[in-house]
């Protein structure tokens, strides 16, 4: 309940009440929460205070406003640990979700300068370029563009790249994937990304760039991925 004599701001108390209901699954993803007026009457507080609490929870990604419909509990974010090197399909399978890949583009291209440096090849050497939309349980999660070394990763087909590339590389090509250098930074969705990911233009996203290496130290993949900021969070386990 709301304690008006507490030094804790009332809007924050309301935030915690709603957050606890979400964490305890009393409120499920997709549930419509009471309106500002209803919450104000229920807790005998001002609508301005309710609005501040709701806005904070929307900004936090726990709630989502839908124009003309109300405010709903947001879909839970997918937690991806950064301590394990896995492909998207492997990640979703480990979470009990059904992964799907929509192949947008698959072709051979001359390696751009950045790609040639990351893959340690000559600029202009042919590489595989694969653009894919990654979905989990039918919802778009990430848009990625991968570049793979043709001499190392041979025999690719449209059928193969619509599945798990890492499984193909390790099981069919018998190459051992060992490590990756990954850079994460916040960004916003541009027009093409927003359309593919079904989010608003300039919505917050997570931009990931990764170079992946085989066990003999050779880089074979450079990938740039854009993850939905409202559906993804990365978890880092740290030791001292």
Automatic annotation (TrEMBL):
Keywords: DNA-binding, Transcription, Transcription regulation. InterPro entries: Bact_HTH_transcr_reg (IPR050679), Chorismate_lyase_/UTRA_dom_sf (IPR028978), Tscrpt_reg_HTH_GntR (IPR000524), UTRA (IPR011663), WH-like_DNA-bd_sf (IPR036388), WH_DNA-bd_sf (IPR036390). Pfam families: GntR, UTRA. Residues 8-76 form the HTH gntR-type domain. One of its GO terms (molecular function) is DNA-binding transcription factor activity. One of its GO terms (biological process) is negative regulation of DNA-templated transcription. PANTHER family: MANNOSYL-D-GLYCERATE TRANSPORT/METABOLISM SYSTEM REPRESSOR MNGR-RELATED, MANNOSYL-D-GLYCERATE TRANSPORT_METABOLISM SYSTEM REPRESSOR MNGR-RELATED. This is GntR family transcriptional regulator. It comes from Caldalkalibacillus thermarum (strain TA2.A1). The lineage of its organism: Bacteria, Bacillati, Bacillota, Bacilli, Bacillales.
């Amino acid at each position: 309940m709301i304690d008006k004599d507490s030094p804790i701001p009332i809007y924050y108390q309301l935030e915690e009440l709603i957050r606890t209901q979400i964490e305890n699954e009393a409120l499920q993803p997709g549930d419509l929460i009471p309106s500002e007026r209803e919450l104000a009457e229920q807790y005998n507080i001002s609508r301005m205070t309710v609005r501040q609490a709701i806005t904070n929870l929307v900004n936090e990604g726990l709630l989502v406003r839908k124009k003309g419909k109300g405010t709903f509990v947001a879909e839970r974010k997918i937690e991806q640990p950064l301590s394990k090197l896995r492909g998207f399909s492997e990640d979703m399978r480990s979470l009990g979700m059904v992964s799907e890949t929509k192949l947008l583009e698959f072709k051979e291209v001359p390696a751009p300068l950045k790609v040639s440096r990351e893959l340690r090849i000559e600029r202009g050497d042919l590489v595989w370029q694969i653009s894919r939309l990654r979905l989990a349980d039918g919802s778009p999660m990430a848009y990625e563009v991968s570049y793979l070394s043709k001499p190392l990763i041979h025999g690719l087909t449209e059928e193969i790249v619509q599945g798990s590339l890492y499984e193909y590389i390790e099981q069919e090509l018998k190459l051992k994937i060992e490590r990756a250098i990954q850079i994460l930074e916040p960004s916003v969705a541009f027009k093409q990304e927003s359309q593919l990911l079904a989010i608003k233009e300039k919505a917050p996203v997570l931009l990931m760039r990764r170079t992946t290496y085989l066990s003999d130290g050779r880089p074979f993949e450079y990938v740039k991925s854009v993850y939905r900021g409202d559906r993804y969070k990365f978890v880092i386990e740290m030791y001292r």
